[in-house]
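Reviewer 2 asked us to include a model.

Predict the structure of this chain.
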Amino acid sequence: MAARRTTLGDAVTGVVAGTAKAGGGARPHRPVGGVRAFLRTVLAGSPLAIVCSSVVVFWVVVAVLGPFLVPGDPLATNVSERLSSPSADHWLGTDEFGRDVAARLVHGAGVSLLLASVTVVVCMVVGTAIGSAAGFYRGLSQVLMRVVDALMAIPGLVLAIVLMAVLGQGLLTIIIALSVVYIPLFARVSFGEVRALKELEFGQAALALGASKWRVLTRHFLPSMSSSLNVQASYVLSTAIITEASLSFLGAGVPPPTPSWGADISAGKSYLFTAPWMLWPAAIALTSLVLAVSLLGDRLRDVLEFRTDRVEV
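Predicted model (structure tokens):
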């Protein structure tokens, strides 16, 4: 079995190298170097990428360590201290129920990042599996991709609201709703990648030499698809954070009194002039995190496209 694998790998490598040398097709993109080298490439020569990375790391640290560093219970109410301005006891003031705004901000960061991160992982796994299966099997593509197209035709926020209305409020139902919204994006990307890679000589050679479709997908296609999937993941991460905040802003997301940036912004808009500290911390946090993730996604796309072009030349 080991000899067969070596022979198959050498044969496929030889076909790919010969194809690239003859100019008959592009080699699949495989990342070169370790994670540290790749991060240096992303950050090198881009002060904006460094700033955005610092913002993302800051909010991740806040989400993980903030509850241990910021005093106060985000759920504890104290009517006698309602709408108190920032002070030594309450760094960012209190809301209309006397709850500590700083504590709610910190715990809200954890909720937003947790929901968005889990959603990205679920969508990447399920969406890639659906798109890859549809790309390999023409019969499945007629069914799976029509369902994907139908889901993509519905505005994401509207679909999420409908699902939340049907499933009810809760952290798990938010993950399910966001996953249904964003799985089609990964499915469409992986479907197109697999269909394109199947037409290249290295994929046809591997199948002709007896490799199973599962082996071809995991050993050859998935590494070549990683660039597109990573860029899509950065986009879904930022939009999932916005969608979760939008659902909470509309009252259809995280159930109260669970801390949520969207819910805090919704409550703070009524006290914009009398107690602005209720609105601005959550609004600034949400804006900075989403903007940083989006700009990092753009930088990641530019770097990966450049590396792919260098490989294909």
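DSSP finds eleven helices and no strands in the chain. The chain has a mean pLDDT of 83. We have added this to the supplementary material.
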